[in-house]
Amino acid sequence: MTDTAHALSTSRTLWELVARRADLTPDRPVLLQGDRSLSFGELRDRAERVAAGLYDMGVRPGTVVAWQLPTRIETALLSFALARLGAVQSPVIPFYRDREVGFALRESKAEYFAVPGRWRGHDHTEMARRLGAKGIFEAYDVLPDGDPSVLPAPPSEGTSVRWIYWTSGTTSAPKGVLHTDRSLIAGGSCLAHALRLSAADVGSMAFPYAHIAGPDYTVMLLLYGFPAVMFEQFALPDALAEYRRHGVTVAGGSTAFYSMFLAEQRKQPGVPVIPSLRLLAGGGAPKPPEVYHRVVREMGVQLTHGYGMTEVPMITMGAPDDTAENLATTEGRPPKGMEIRVVDGEVRLRGEAVCQGYLDPAQTAEAFDENGFLRTGDLGHVTDGGHLVLTGRLKDVIIRKGENISAKEIEDLLAAHPEVGDVAVIGLPDAERGERVCAVVEQPPGAGELTLEAVTSYLRAQGLSPHKLPEQLEVVDALPRNETLRKVLKYQLRERYSGTVK
Hints:
Elements: H1 3-8, H2 14-24, E1 29-33, E2 36-39, H3 40-57, E3 64-67, H4 73-85, E4 88-91, H5 98-108, E5 112-115, E6 118-119, E7 122-123, H6 124-130, E8 136-138, E9 161-166, E10 176-180, H7 181-195, E11 203-205, H8 213-224, E12 228-230, H9 240-246, E13 250-253, H10 255-265, E14 279-282, H11 289-299, E15 302-309, E16 312-317, H12 324-329, E17 339-343, E18 346-350, E19 357-358, H13 361-367, E20 374-382, E21 388-393, E22 397-400, E23 403-406, H14 407-414, E24 422-430, E25 434-442, H15 452-461, E26 472-476, H16 490-497
Parallel strand pairs: 1-12, 3-4, 3-5, 5-8, 11-12, 13-14, 14-15, 25-26
Antiparallel strand pairs: 1-2, 6-7, 9-10, 10-19, 15-16, 17-18, 18-20, 20-21, 22-23, 24-25
Helix pairs in contact: 2-3, 3-4, 7-8, 10-11
């Protein structure tokens, strides 16, 4: 991390970070979208005017404001305006509907709710009214505006809870995760430190800004003073023109994004799909080692993958100058200040980037151990070199005839099979064995027929123990995924195939 970036990372609040960066490089761009651009100075100045407009509406320090907005320059302005006021903001993923949105509004006790109006065929304003939301206002092209002279002083400390993020709710009701300005700055600093970026880079946001990755990534832009291209709707190959137009040097998001870029690269082997690109980076979902090797080999760029969660936006990250072996098989190393402890195989965390807990005090008590470490539910170990290796989830261990089987181990092996595009391994109820191993495979275009016998033969050849071999194979057109970082929704697969017997 440069001296300037390190100095900025000590900012007490997100607004202080914005103001300090604006003083340093007011005319440099921070956000790019289509023909529009926003500089660091404009981010500060326009956000203050939006804050004044919100203040005129009745928003005060500590007021809870929920927002469900797409990845747009206006969304960033509204979010930083709320940070300027010291309001408590609750971002909601724009793809969520009545069940998740209603839950977030009720649990957060939101006093205001910003929506985009009708967006991608869905009337968010009507949904908000149907749910009985308070203080509904649309914030898409037009934002509240006012005279900054009416504003109170900005918040002076960053340790109060001012953010309520929501877990994805892929297995149960979402949890309201409590963050502070300082925990978000710490998470973004970890990402910035690991990726070794510079003011000459151009990043990209192809994920929902309402995701925890939104502030994580924006903090990195503020620390290093470089811009990112925002994608309101991301799809390949349509988005490639914007990557090329702005000369994006760093792209990514998650494993699913890497695979999407690879698919585009394979249309014209040897011709860089994005000529300026030098690094793919992301996290949020496991990365099979073979994906790393394919990206480096076929795209000619480096790939660094990390480990984060809503509760801790950035835990570890691979560094571009790390060894190929570590980049392929580990999640990278933690930054200074992130403590990792492995207890009975479970990864536990303590540090400034860790959330303050959950809205529900009972969930908070259950999540932290007696030493203040967050129980992640992830299984893994730390290498002698300090790199973290994840081996699966506590809830993703298949118990077959009393033997523990890691779904991730089988997935990593199958990811290298030429007839496999993506794969999810799940445990299904079985009267005789307790659970049986089922591999659900999404094949790449043009792939031949895949049989259970071919899969088990391949895994045997890779040295997988016989008791871990899949006993059921399901081939699907597409694995079910969430709309944020495209994580596979295994609970849906378990529901779909639990009644099947092969």
